[in-house]
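[Meeting: bench + compute handoff]

Bench side (C.D.) handed over the final construct sequence. Compute side (W.E.) agreed to return the predicted structure before the next meeting so the bench team could plan truncations. Sequence as handed over:
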Amino acid sequence: VGLTLAACGSDSTSEPASPGAEATASEPLTISDAWSRQPAEGQTLGVVYGVVSNPNDTDITVTSAASPATDRVELHETLVGDDGAMSMEERTDGFVIPANGEFVFEPGGPHVMLLDIDAATFPTDSVDVTLTFDGADDLSFSAEVRAIGGDAMDMGEMDMDEMDMGEMDMGEMDMDEMDMDEMDMDES
């Protein structure tokens, strides 16, 4: 399977947040089913998923994320090209949580990417994350850390040190089925 991760540019169609916008939401946003995968030994990438709910009558944009687990957190989306190949890109202008609706961070779709983590010190029970919004107050939460299931796809002894993360094509892979225990995701 060819692996390429598209350069972290943005191909989005939503409008960027207005500079200097003030929080306008009357009700706080919430998150449910927040979780993260337990990284394998030596792995330097992590991911967080969950369902963000917006009880307000206006769209709210999540513009960034942060975590004490790493200094480098990005909002990512998974794209499928015309040839069926999957790629991931940083979403620098964020994601819109629709008025009176939900936005789902999920495997194979939008997600919060934790970069440059230290798997040895990564929390084993939950990881703290804060989402920042244009139009609402920050949302801080703890995402349950889940072990990788035994039915996961074994990626062998893949050494990501020698891969160009800016050119990685995820091909037909389902991130839910990957065995991250066997992947060396170190970036140099």
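W.E. noted at the follow-up: The mean pLDDT is 76. C.D. will use this when planning the next construct.
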